[in-house]
């Protein structure tokens, strides 16, 4: 690294979920359609969505 301020360091400003790896298929989320993974994830987490009646 240089201490010269004229040389800028490249930084990626992305802190988004779509830059991460899919936890179900292991591919990057930006690679193709993850509708199947989303459906599987919804089924796995369905028990969390059903709230008891008030």
Please give a structural write-up:
This protein is an all-alpha fold and 54 residues long. The chain has a domain at 17-49. Helices cover 26% and strands 0% of the residues. The chain is built from 2 helices and no strands. It is elongated, with a radius of gyration of 20 Å. The mean pLDDT is 73.
Secondary-structure blueprint:
Elements (H helix, E strand, L loop, with lengths): L34 H10 L1 H4 L5
Keywords:
54 residues, mainly alpha, 26% helix, 0% strand, elongated
End-to-end span in angstroms? 61 Å
Tell me the β content.
under 5%
Order of helices and strands: HH
Helical content, roughly? Answer: 25-40%
Low-confidence sequence ranges: none
The overall strand count is: 0
Counted by DSSP, the helix tally is 2
Radius of gyration: 20 Å
Mean pLDDT, to the nearest integer, reads 73
Sheet with most strands: none
TL;DR of this structure?
The protein has helices spanning 35-44, 46-49. It is an all-alpha fold and 54 residues long.
